[in-house]
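Please predict the structure of the following assembly.
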Amino acid sequence: MGHFDAAQAAVSAALDAGARYADARVMHKRYESMSARNGDIEDLVSDESAGLGVRALVGSSWGFFAVPDMERVTEAGHRAAEIARASARVPSDPIDLIPVPAQTASWASECVIDPLAVPLSDKGDLLVHATKAIREHGADLAEAHYQIWDTRKWFVSSEGHRIDQHIRECGAGISATSVGDGETQRRSYPAGRGQFGTRGWELVNEIDLMAHAARVAEESRALLSAPLCPSGETALILGGEQMCLQIHESVGHAIELDRILGWEAAFAGTSWLDLSRLGNLKYGSELMNITIDPTIPGALGSFGFDDEGTPAAKRYAVRNGQWVGVLAGRDSAALAGLDYGGSVRSDGWSRLPMVRMTNVGLEPGPHTLEEIIASTDDGVYMENNRSWSIDDRRLNFQFGCEIGYEVKNGKLGRMLRNPTYTGIGPRFWSSMDMLSSEIVNWGTPNCGKGQPSQTGHTGHPAAPARFQHVRVGVRS
Amino acid sequence: MIDQIFEQARKALPGADIEVTVEHNRAALTRFANSFIHQNVAEDTTTVGLRVHHEGRTIALSTTADPQALIDRAAAILGDAPRDPGWPGLAPAASLAGTPQLDPTDPGPDARAEVVRGFVEAAGGLSTAGYCRTVRWAGSYRNSAGQALDATATSADMDGIARHDGADGVARRHAVQLSDIDGAALGARAAASARAQGDPVELPPGRYEVVLQPEAVADILSNFSYHGFNGKYLNDGRCFAHLGEAQFDPAVSIYDDPFAGVGGRPFDHEGTPRGHLSLVEHGVTRTVAYDRRSAAEAGTASTGHALSDDNWGPMAVNLAFAGGSSSAEQMISEMRRGILVSDFWYTRVLDPRTLVITGLTRNGAWLVEHGEIVRPVRNFRFTQGYVSALAPGRVLGIGAEVTPLPNIRRELQNVSCPAMRLASWNFTGGASG
């Protein structure tokens, strides 16, 4: 049975069993990862996952059933409808879906060098050499890793969609940890978990891990004897990678419509955003322009169609500081009275599609990081995320970075260890008074959400920025 | 099935160290929000794992598709794999330390929906949200060193909140069988907690004495699991543990046990049987969790805590605090001034070596004065060392009742916690800024 035929059979079975709408995804996913520690390969993993998940809508609720065996797709359709019917024991009003024109389409991400075709020995040599160099430059613990995903999926809906996609993603990173008397200090490159995109191995070649091995080692060692980040209120300049985290946690999750509607209240939390204020709520300063854009070539949250068959399209979430858009799916949009979805994905065939970030990020500002520092008389510069915590409404956050620097009279000064900052989302974003034009499409491959747990891949265009009157240096 | 795959692998990879796992997972989760079931899912999956070490090279593979293709793939790429000088060898033949308790029934979506309905109705009209989950896992392991294990485990979990005027009350429970989950009792408890949070005040940050409910204590164990009792972290110098030292109050004993009525896996992903592992005895840190690689590096034996899905290192996944002799009510009555905390939220480690954590309170906090709950307080942000919070002299009471609680992110993982009274908790700010 072909992939589309299997998906169609599952959909038909769900309709026969009483569903008023059904869709199915056949997915075939290959995953490869390797990690090195202190000059030796520690872990080499090669996984293959294939199966079908079918979603059936009966009354107010979805039912979902997943099987790895294509001989059981009819059973899967029946079981999905049966599960949805059981939900009627605790019912609500019937769910609507906003319309999405049925289409037959095919899409593939750009890939210059197939990452799974690069010899394992070459990939291993890169990690071994990088970790050896980190150790030689003084770190106690040197780590390096890469991850590759190669996903093919075939989507069929009871409304006539037939869409196949081939998405290749990969990325890599290194880190150095130095162990001191009672604490550790870590430096990583390009980011705490590396840099990732919907690209081939050319991404890994471009980030040039070896060129940064000595620096991260030396910085992790130097941090052990650096002064603590001072406590107080000051001007805060964030590097681009930390801005990625700031956007992800305090904007991306907050604009998820399922959170706003309360669907994630118990586990992931809700949102401070009130739908009645959409289009009429200040989120930040006028420099703040945030887009939802799964069409960015090579960014980690890019695709041709989401997992409901909605074509990828760009829209604004925040424009000139005003909240104007959300991440939505067909059901949540209908409930909210909106006319767009397009942000629903699942992390595999065995998981229910749900509202996820795509590429949520900043449009460029007018400055450069160099100009931002030069115009700051007194402040702190922080880069590379180390810890993140935010409340269940996505308002109160406390983030820690790997490294900080004093900024005095327009210049970077002493290195600072254990830099942290805290704030309230809209107040913090309203204090952004300088934004760089140096956008990088950062990739976050570890966004957790949903029950059963799903790991999302999201992209975040981000650039360095300055914020005023921020509380820094929070500690135990 | 597994014996056939194992023999095929031996033929295709002669002379290699080989281990094969087959895991069959029937998991279902019924999710509710705004007091109705909005997501309801189930999966019936079989995953075959194969790890091969030959001539100094190691590769781990898995598939949900064709096992023969998996073996062929291993044979094709093993020679190109980088060298692995730290290969610790295969687990030797050993028997299971016990047999997990099982749910004799096979709960379907209707049974889970009834538990949810009990929770929703008992909340008395408050908006509710949460989940009810059942899992039946069957795992088999074979290796070329002669180890052969088969086991089955079940679990049932519920986690829910009730919402009232912007305040949430929580109730959670883990069990081996669904019939031990009383949705109505949990819903009533969550609703009572939510209703008790009207008109909260914001207190200034600072160090407060606290009584932590079991749901909050669970967060301490969860962070100990990830960053604390982790043999890889200890080898790397990133772990708080000093084996043999009295790092905790004498009232503190912590252990990991998949058989203590909690429904864990009886062997790990390397085929090492798991049993009762005493990590802290009367305040003295005795050991940490090891897999084969971290154990070999440390010159000790694996404790059976290898994970399959990442290189995080070994984790104790059925952790428990030993119960004391008090109760939450008694500990509150003995507190002159402090905070009663229901739950912690979004905690993250600032430094694994000191296990300093930042996070927030959630699902209810109350000011206690002269042994009485005076009034609800708004959520706090805190930055607190978890080891130092339990240091000698800092634990003022531990509840006798130990509550099994789910790991809300992972199946067949759980923690068992009593309420606990601690001398100091460092609240660094109000959640409103």
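Chain B touches chain A through 95 residues (CB under 8 Å). The mean pLDDT of chain B is 95.
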